[in-house]
Amino acid sequence: MTGSPESVLVVVRGPSGAGKSSVTARLRAAYGRGLAVVGQDLLRRTVLRERDVPGGANIGLIDLVARHALDHGFHTVVEGILAAERYGPMLARLVADHRGRSFLYYLDVDFDETVRRHATRTQAAEFSPEDMADWYRPHDLLPGGLERVVGRHSGLEETVGRILADTGLAPAGWTPRP
Q1: DSSP sequence for the chain
Q2: In contact, 121 and 21? CB cutoff 8 Å
Q3: Interval 135-157: pLDDT, tens
Q4: pLDDT tens track for 61-100
Q5: How many angstroms separate the CA atoms of 67 and 76, rounded?
Q6: Domain 8-167, CATH 1.25.40.10 — does that match?
């Protein structure tokens, strides 16, 4: 078993440019200390400098870091594209082993919207819409109905507010930014 019965596990998945990192940053800002962030991009691209390949080392590292944080009493957010085919089995095991409550969200954004959002990001020059087309998997949900789908029309503050309310992680007096 992983984590304490009081710990909360949140998974935020979706295509590139869907807003996962922005949502996670706002969750961290709202909650503060005690919330660990396990970012796929940081572990895969920065720590390991690994391509996203089947059986990649980053899959086990994401699992290990999330379990470690949960075991040490941190509420934990795992975020990334986390394609269902590659990461689904690891995420399903993590959720099954977690003794606390788990909440999984899929930011369901169509390809045109991901390209539009990507163009506004600081890393827009790092990869092109053509690169994104290779990675894009429409409605890439995990099997078993584990995820709550957040549609493209849910704004950043609305999405963050929903997750904080669902999980019970909203600090006293927290209100969404206008």
Answers
A1: -BS-TT-EEEEEE-STTSSHHHHHHHHHHHH-TTEEEEEHHIIIIIIS-----TT-HHHHHHHHHHHHHHHTT-EEEEEE---HHHHHHHHHHHHHHBSSEEEEEEEE--HHHHHHHHTTSTTGGGS-HHHHHHH--TT-PPTTS-EEEEETT--HHHHHHHHHHHHT-PPTT-----
A2: no
A3: 788 899 999 999 999 998 999 99
A4: 999 999 999 999 999 999 999 999 999 999 999 999 999 9
A5: 9
A6: no
End-to-end CA distance of the chain: 40
Question: Tokens 């584990």, residue?
Answer: 146
Give the integer Cα–Cα distance in Å for 149 and 144: 13
Place of tokens 């795992």: 78
- Rg of the Cα atoms in the chain: 15
Which single residue is written with the structure tokens 């082993």?
97
